Amino acid sequence: MVHVSATPVLALRGVSKRFGAVQALTDVELEVHAGEVVALVGDNGAGKSTLVKTIAGVHPIDEGAIEWEGKPVQIGKPNDAQSLGIATVYQDLALCDNIDVVGNLFLGRELKKRGILDEVEMERRARELLTTLSIRIPSVRIPIASLSGGQRQTVAIARSMLGDPKLVILDEPTAALGVEQTAQVLDLVERLRERGHAVILISHNMADVKAVADKVAVLRLGRNNGVFEVKTTSQEEIISAITGATDNAVTRRAARTNGEVSK
Amino acid sequence: MSIEKTSETPQDAPAVENPEAAAAAVTAVDPRLLVREQGLTGYLGEFKRKMRAGELGSLPVIVGLVAICAIFQSLNSAFLSAQNLSDITVTMVGTGMISVGIVFVLLLGEIDLSVGSVSGAASALAAVFAVNQGWPEWLAVLVAVAAGAAIGAAHGFFFAVLGAPAFAVTLAGLLFWLGFMLQVLGANGTINLDSDGLIGQLTTYFFSDVAAAYGLAAVVVIVFFATSYVGNRRREAAGIPSRPLSETALRTGLLAVVAFAAAYMYNQYKGLPLATVIFLAFLVLTDFVLRRTAYGRKVFALGGSVEASRRAGINVTAVRISVFAISGFFAAVGGLFLASKIASANQSAGAGDLLMNAIAAAVIGGTSLFGGRGRTWNALLGVLVIVSIQYGLQLESIAEPVKYMITAGVLLTTVVIDSITRKTQKTAGRA
């Protein structure tokens, strides 16, 4: 088991968010520690993306509090989140196809020397970063367009690592990936954990969640619907929490006994 | 779910076939990469691979240029004479300058249809201030060029801030600035420029000293070699792949052949033309800005993905406005060169096929219409093709209508080549 620090890197306390007539999030609680992978699961429309966007500063919260390393903070804009040390990798990867890997990694924060791009230093650091993350791509000087989906995903994740964030949020990193590419991305998630980053992983894929997450936080209709330890929870339990087959401890317990009987 | 804990073990079939996979996996280099061999063999191998993958770059246009020269030379031996070539490289500067601005706009994946009218408006402004108002010519030139940039920025504002399509905004600009130019020129319609003044000299001044052309060629070759060499040494020192010395030498050699041949040709006639020197200086400058500065990187990024650029913290609006300002600036500069060539600002300035030629030059040179791919050098190659054809046909006394049709044919061919190479690149995974 990976060592988990006492104070969570990020804690959401009773977070609520409304969009017009829709109550997207109600009293949501979430804790992420350093060196911990928390999977955020839930059906479509459960509020996963909204929750992530409140953390990333895209949507400011209406009620509740966000604590960063034990201290309350305000996250009003994406820059606030970035300066705290939160990096978000969105589902649509936001890479430029026509620019090479190095250029994409440093896009918007190019290294300069007397006003001129320092390509040598950027390439050196890019190689260093990709090597430490054991990311294998054909070359750091080929355009993103020539990479496979999985390689692009790893580049997007590597890009989020450049600012050395404390918390990395991955929005469905394995959606639309093949078996091998999925394994590569999951590898990378484990490496992030080993290096002491806190990770929030949004996924619909239970196999992925079981493979890399330490905890699973379930959202249902914008509310918490349980936080489970992955090691001691069956997949059925998580799924029934997602679909709402369970809403309280009793049905959850019943589901568990049924599950064991059927085995 | 099997998850590899160590990267030392090859985990995919192609890697297993490759005994070097284990070693390669430790670095960031994928064993499946067709690693180029060192030295000249590797360079040629890479070249062949690029050809097959559809990365033609500037090759079609260079082949086309050679073909054009061969055809017209066989028709009329005056085509490759020093005088004709010198005339071509002076005449092309006006359209070429405008085309440089078009390259910037095309890199964004947008289009600027107003450049012809803006060039006419700028030359009219310069003529009015210099001749009618009696300002010093340098001031009139400065004001005209600044006005061009401001006009471009205004187009950019409507596009970037208000979100109107660039095509429509600049189409409106095309009409508006045409009207503006006619208004400024007044009832007379033509303002003659002093052919010995600053604007007049732009296309008529030649550095007649033989040493000037050779000196410039030597400087260009030495600077090219020095920057390549120093860059490669830095890469070697940082432990990242660098070009072999033989490749740098080959490139320098090719450049030297072209540079000294051009210098020799100029010295056979009147000497090194000022217009060409200014054009080359702008090309070097813009190429540097696009490929070596953060600003240039932003322009390419916007051509690749606007959303990615926005999320990377790039000020999309500012970059867009600035690119249209650059386009307006070069339109104005081009307008001054065109006015200089005829020593007057008149009502037909910026009309006719100027706009189409400027856009065609950028595209013929290899700038993609789809954004994100291109270099300002493309403008030079493209405009060389267009003006060479015009001069060649003129030597054959072929009439204007046929010229239009032939230029159109060349443009269409280029666009088709662009589309086909894009398809090939997609199948080769490079687009």
UniProtKB/TrEMBL annotation, chain B:
Keywords assigned: Cell inner membrane, Cell membrane, Membrane, Sugar transport, Transmembrane, Transmembrane helix, Transport
Lineage top rank: taxon: Bacteria
Membrane topology: Multi-pass membrane protein
Record carries keyword Hydrolase: no
Protein localization: Cell membrane
The UniProt record lists the keyword Membrane: yes
Membrane-crossing segments per the record: 56-76, 88-108, 115-132, 138-159, 166-185, 205-227, 248-266, 272-290, 318-339, 351-370, 377-395, 401-420
Pfam family, any one: BPD_transp_2
InterPro entries: ABC_transp_permease
Function: Part of the binding-protein-dependent transport system for D-xylose. Probably responsible for the translocation of the substrate across the membrane.
Name by which UniProt lists this protein: Xylose transport system permease protein XylH
Record organism: Streptomyces glomeratus
